[in-house]
Structure formats: C-alpha cells, structure tokens
Amino acid sequence: MHNRGEWASVTRKTGRAERDQHAEPVSASELIVRVDMKRNPDELRAAMNAVIKSVPGASCMIGYPIAHRISAVLSGSAAELSLNIFGDKPEDIRAAAARAKELLATMPEVGDFQANREILVDTVKIDYDRERLAHEGLTLADAGEQVSAAFNGRVLGTVAEGQNRRDVTLRMEEGEADEEAVKKLLIKTRTGRFVRLDDIADVHREEASNLVIHENGRRQALITLNPAPGVSVGELVSSLAHRLGPELAAFGCTAEFGGTYQANISARRTLVTFSVVLLFVVFFVLLVATKAPMRAFTVMATLPLALVGAVGAVALTGRIVSIASAVGLITVAGFVIRNGLLLENRYVELEREGHGPIEAIRFGSRERMVPILMTSLTTVLGLVPIVVALDVPGGEILAPLAAVQLGGLVIATVAALVVVPALSVLIAPKAMVLVPK
After folding, report:
1. CATH architecture type of domain 291-430
2. Which of 87, 144, 246, 431 could form a disulfide with 93 if both were Cys (CB 3.0 to 4.6 A apart)?
3. pTM > 0.85: yes or no
C-alpha cells in the first residue's frame, strides 16, 4: 500500500496483548490509512479493497475510526452487522459458514465482510476412560491437573530482583509435547503409584478448531459484515434472510442477526414509544396554552409536512434514516410546535384586544414573520457547514442529524408562515376563544 501513492501514510498495528481490553491474535492487523479527503470516498474504498483482495486469504473491514469504535462498543466487532450461525455439530456449522461466505461474495448489497476465522489445527486429544480412572483411584480433575501442570507449567515461587518480580514455573521441556511423549506421561495416583497416561486415557491426534464461540450455551460461527454504500442495514438483513435462510437450513443451522442492527431496533422502539407519548403531552400543553382544540390541531397538522421535508433531506444527501436521523426528527417537531405556538398565541392576544379573527391572523402573521425567519435562518446557517462535511471522518453522527434538521426546519418555516395562517382562516369560526370583558 505504501507504493501506490494514493494515500499519505499507512500505519499498521498487528495483534494486541493477551490482557488488552480488545485482545486480538497476531493474524489480525489494523491499518490506519491517511487519505486526501478531497477524493471520492467510494474510489478510495475500491482502491483499498483491490489491495486487500490481492493478498490470498485476507479480508478486511473498511471504515472511519470513530465508526469502528462505536460498532465495537455495541456489537464487539468493527462491523455494523454480525451474522451468527448456530448449530449442534461443529462440522455442520463449519460447512454452513463456508456456504454463507460463498453467497456473501456474490451479493451486491454486501460492502465487505469477514467470514468465520476458524482454522483447523493439529492437536493431541486426550479422552479419559472413567472406568480405568476409577480403578486407579483417580478423578478427571486429578488427571487433568497433572497433565496441565506438565505441559502448561505450575508456578512454584517468585524471584525478586529489585522492583521486578518473576514467577518460577516448572514445566516439561519444549519438544516433549508430541503424541508419544504425552502417552508416556506418568500420572501419580492417590496411593502413590505412577501410571502412564495412555493406560487411563485414549491419546490420539485430531484436527480441532482454534476458535470456539458459544452464545447462550449454543455453538456458533460468527460472520461480520457491512452494507454496501447506499444500502441500509435493514435492507441488507432482509436480503440475507431471504438468501441465506434456506441454505443454512439445509445444514441444520439457523441464523440470527446482531451488532448495531439489534441496537438500532431497540433504540427505534424506545424512540417510537417516547415520541407517541410526547405527542399526546404536547397536544395537551397546546390545548392548555391556546384554550381551543382547533388551534392546537392547527399547530399539530403542520408536523407531517416538516417530517416529509426532513426525510427528503436525508434522501437528497444519499443517506439512510438512522438513529441519529430519528433524533433529528424529534428536534424538527420542536421547531414546528414552537413556530405554530408563537403564531396562535399572537392570534389569541389580538382577538382579545378586539380584532376580528381574520384581522388577528393577518396582523399576527406579519408581526411574527420576522422573528420566525431570523431564528430559523440562524439555525440553518449553523447546520449548513455540518451537512456540507457529510463525508468527513467524525461526521457519522452529526451529519445525518444536521441534514434532517436542515430539511425539516426549512419546511417547518414555510409551514409556519403559510400553512398555519391558511388553516387558521379555515377554522376561524370554530376557534373563537372567550374574551373576558
């Protein structure tokens, strides 16, 4: 990658310490690539993918650092979506994961993915014979502890050298862990006798997985993936369920989707629930403030128009409605209700001063036009730079929120100056308030 000249610098971090919060094997590397942000992000992504795919057996997840960190917090991986394949037999799960990998490579909805990182390694397996163990007066724990001490070592003490402390560990010499050496290992019984390990267990070579993952007591294979540009996570999940479901069922396996997808579903449910409750609360407050149900309805009637403008802004920027966008919709609703309430309260004040309904609407709209335009304009000017920097790293959360607010605020301002007065004229005979003498 250094020699291509398409990026300013490339820094690599390979593996992480065993006690690190995010431990990674030496087979995993993190490349931090500095690029010219004036270039097309899709072209840069394609160039990086081309480099990675030229390395046999390599796979990658491309994204901005903050997006990877957020995904890691939510799902434990750097990808937006995780595909969990569950089954009873390891060989069936392994075959299902391999088939899923083949299908993912042919789906245009998938941006990049990392298939199950399982590798079969040559191991020496020990199957204990419980009857022979009982005959020698041993338990599984007795034999297992001695075998572990022989090959993994046992700490006998600590050596102090100044401020440094080092453990003294006793273990077999390197090179003595082959199959024959394991068979000849002497196990001490509780009576003091020594027996060979192959007298109480079946010792043989076997290929075993280097990665065993369980969730809720079920063995699983994990595949992480990101949607292609312009494809939402929901669309990707629907496509995967349609394509992968029958294929995995043929192996006796099932699939579940996790990652930020599950977090988004939970957040959406929470937002929808609170939004419905807040709408009823806001309508009640408007009813108390205006003292006329039709006036409160007029303010609330402009809310769908602003939401259409907000969603339209997301579509124009080529983005999808995310959790950040949904939060922006709530703020747009606040703009709509604020503007409508300013107008309706002024209409009520003018009617109490003796103006007719139509005159109150005309004069009140003129008086409130400048304050509404100025407050909206200042907010729009503050949002424009964030929307313009939509593809700049760090804008993964703010940019979608700003786009929704910008589109919704523009339509909310138009609705406040045009739709609210028009609806007020239509309902004027029904919206009269009691004017105290």
Report:
1. Up-down Bundle (1.20)
2. 87
3. no
